[in-house]
Amino acid sequence: MKVIRAVQPLLPLCEHVLPSRLAGLSIALLKATALEIAILAGHLLLYPSGISQERRATATDPATPSTLPETPTTTHLPTQPKPPVVLLHGFIDNRSVFVLLRRSLAQHGRQQVESLNYSPLTCDIRTAAELLGRHIEEICRRTGHPQVDIVGHSLGGLIARYYVQRLGGDFRVRTLVTLGTPHSGTRVAPLADAHPIVRQMRPGSQVLEELRLPAPGCRTRFVSFWSDLDQLMDPPETACIDHPDLLAQNVQVTGVGHLALPVHPAVATGIRQALDQSDTPVATGAQAGAQTGGLTVA
User: Fold this and answer.
1) How far apart are CA 154 and CA 186, in angstroms?
2) Which of 164, 283, 285, 291 is packed most tightly, with the most Cβ within 10 A?
3) Mean pLDDT, the chain, whole residue set
4) 173-179 and 221-227 as β-strands: parallel, antiparallel, unpaired?
């Protein structure tokens, strides 16, 4: 009876706090779901425009910034040229998902931004990673930059990580930003296992076990954005990178779903900041894995 009496004063508090927290979560979930539906509708309209590969810029392309004549009194501080940014889409998607992010990067000084399409018929992450490597070698030859930055959404981030970790891509990739990527595997939509590449995104798959292997000396910096309301990551924390050999930072996004990650302006700001901080030394090993950040967009 003493125990019951001790608990009884807490009951009104629990009855008040728990429903309010659940209500707050429900409202955030409703907002995120409504945003996902709106983004999906807009993306379906843009999808046909991104089916073909984009035209590559050349030295004489109007999209390439021209060199303006300078007056004798003009002075400029020396600046380090920024590497090209490569955007890699997710499963059954194409480059059209990055329309807004690409515009945001261009408006803030990233003049060389390229989106790569891989075939929706791709059935193996390793094969897609090899193709990505060939694309990046071509970009480096064409632009004259020895390295690139990559932003990968969902499966695109996993393909890029495999290239970096398992195919020597850390020599070419300075920073890899992943958005809602199942680094530890996701259990969502078990009926989708009919597709081989979905099975590779399951916990314990051979590909994910390869990514758990030691990667000593990996030179690429990783920044993983994960959302607490990501409906395609089960559990949501599977989009975090946890590897003792990687220079990694996990950034939690609050208030958006899976489709909103490459679209939301607040996330775009976080991506730009992550790319701009690539020249800043970061911790290694277990310390790097412990680095976290937060981004609330709701």
Assistant:
1) 11
2) 164
3) 81
4) parallel
Task: Please tell me whether residue 229 adopts helix, strand or coil conformation.
Answer: coil
Torsion sign, CA atoms 265, 107, 273, 262: positive
Alpha carbon distance 161, 266 (integer Å): 24
Instruction: Measure the CA–CA gap between 234 and 203, rounded to whole angstroms.
Output: 10
Count other Cβ atoms within 10 Å, centred on residue 158.
Answer: 27
Tokens coding 64: 């390439």
Give whole-number Cα distances, 51 to 36, 120, 131, in Å.
21, 10, 17
Identify the band that residue 16 occupies on the pLDDT scale cut at 50, 70 and 90. very low
| Burial 37-56, CB ≥16 within 10 A → b, else e | eebeeebeeeeeebeeeeee
Distance CA 122, CA 65 (A): 35
Torsion of CA 37, 43, 48, 52, to 10 degrees: -140
**CA nearest 168: which of 142, 136, 190?**
136
Taking the complete model, does pTM exceed 0.85, yes or no? no
pLDDT digits (tens, 9 = 90+) for 199-254: 999 999 999 999 999 999 999 999 999 999 999 999 999 999 999 999 999 999 99
* Alpha helices in the chain, H assignment, sequence order: 2-7, 10-46, 99-107, 125-143, 155-166, 196-199, 206-211, 265-276, 285-289
